[in-house]
Every structure is written in C-alpha cells, then in structure tokens.
Amino acid sequence: MNIKKHLSILYIEDDEIMALKLKSILEKIFYEVIIAKNGQEAYAIFKGTHKIDLIISDINMPKMDGLEFLEKVREIDENIPFIFLTGRNESKKMLRAIELSITNYLLKPIDLDKLLLAINKILEKKIKDQDLLENDLIINKDYSWNKSKNILYKNNIIIKLTKKELQFIGFLLSSPNRIYSESDIIDYIWKDEFSSLNYSSNLKNLIVRLKKKIPDLKIINHYGLGYKIEIN
Q: pLDDT under 50 in the chain at which residues?
C-alpha cells in the first residue's frame, strides 16, 4: 500500500500564492492537502471532523501564530507530526517549539526537496510504528510478544529462551486467552519428532522452566482443560 495516498496534510500559510503553489505540488503526491490561512482557522479544522496525519505550519501568522497553534494542538495530541516553516531570526520561538516536540523545521524560503525529505522521514517512522502495532502483542505492562519474529520482550528487552519455550509461548498467544489442551500443545511443539518419549512429562518440565525464568508471566493451568497465558 502506498501510504502517501492515504495521508492528509494540514498546511497553514497566510501567503495565499505560496499556499496554493505548494498545495498544487503536494496534492500530486498525497491524498489530501487542507489549507488554512492562520492558526485560528487551522485549529478549527484540526478539532473538526477531518483526520489530520501531518501538520506543516508557518510560524508567524495573524490571529493565532504558529507557536500558539502548536501549543493548542499538543493539548489534544502529543504525537501528531508537526513541521515548522520559519525565518532565520526566530530562535526564541523555535526553542519553545522544540520543548513542544516539533518533528522538524525548515528555513524559508522553502526548499521543496528538503520538505519532501522531511515528510518521507516522518512516513518511514509511521510505517515502522504501524508494523510494531500489528506485530506486537501486549501481554501486560511488562511483557510483549512479537508475532512475526517469535520474540518475547520484557520492558523492551529480549528474553533469551529455547526454541521449544518460544514455540510454547507463541502457540498459546496465537489466540490470546484461549485455553489449549495438552495434546494440542504437544502436537504443535513435538510434531516432527517420532519416539516413545513421554511428551506430557516434557511439557510439564518445559512449563516449570519457563515459570522459573519468567515467574511474572502468568501461565495458567486449567486442570483437565489445558493451558493459557493470561493477557491483561
């Protein structure tokens, strides 16, 4: 999917000629470019029904300048990407903008290549963050499971486990909070092994090891039914 074709940009610029010129360029690349003449108008749009993915704003504008607009935006959304377009003699305002977590800033006059590069960097981060959301299952406040890589994290640090321990956790988390029978788990973990070993005993030993390694990961034994990992 081309994420650019789904991105809505709010562009605030009081110079109408400049605004229309940049809008005509950005509209060829992005899904929607909404123009506002000042911070007051932009804030009304931002609070309205439009879903805004990125804000590009001049810093000096009538009615409500870019810095005041940024402050109001951050009261509602701490994370939305925000690019400032600024002159060379606005260091005090830029220090305040940095405190409010602007994503980037560019000096005027605007270099289109630099602006597109800044937007592309934001998009790359957006894609990575989306991948993390899609691939990471939050187990509890400490633990998460990466489904695509079969990795268990505690406070974002990888926990080293054996292949079969990871298979056990991954199988139980394939349908969170579902109870899996002992026979289903054994069939999954030892499906490629053919011997007369007591796999029921192997499974119990595996669970004992896991509970010693990660005692605060709740592996629940529902007697007579099977096992699950509690998600909360």
A: 1
Q: What is the pTM of this model?
A: 0.56
Alpha-carbon distances, residue 53 vs 31, 44, 99, 120 (angstroms) = 11, 15, 21, 13
Q: What is the pLDDT of residue 130?
A: 59
CA distances from 213 to 57, 206, 207 (A): 51, 11, 10
In order of their start, the domains of the chain are: 3-134 (3.40.50.2300), 139-229 (1.10.10.10)
What's the pLDDT at 199?
86
Nearest CA to 107 out of 94, 93, 88 is that of 88
CB under 8 Å to 32, separation ≥6 — which residues? 7, 8, 9
Nearest to 74 by CA among 106, 91, 93, 98: 98
**What is the Cα–Cα distance from 88 to 127, expressed in whole angstroms?**
32
Output the pLDDT for position 69.
94
Q: Taking Cα atoms as reference points, which of 86, 16, 96, 11 lies closest to residue 55?
A: 11
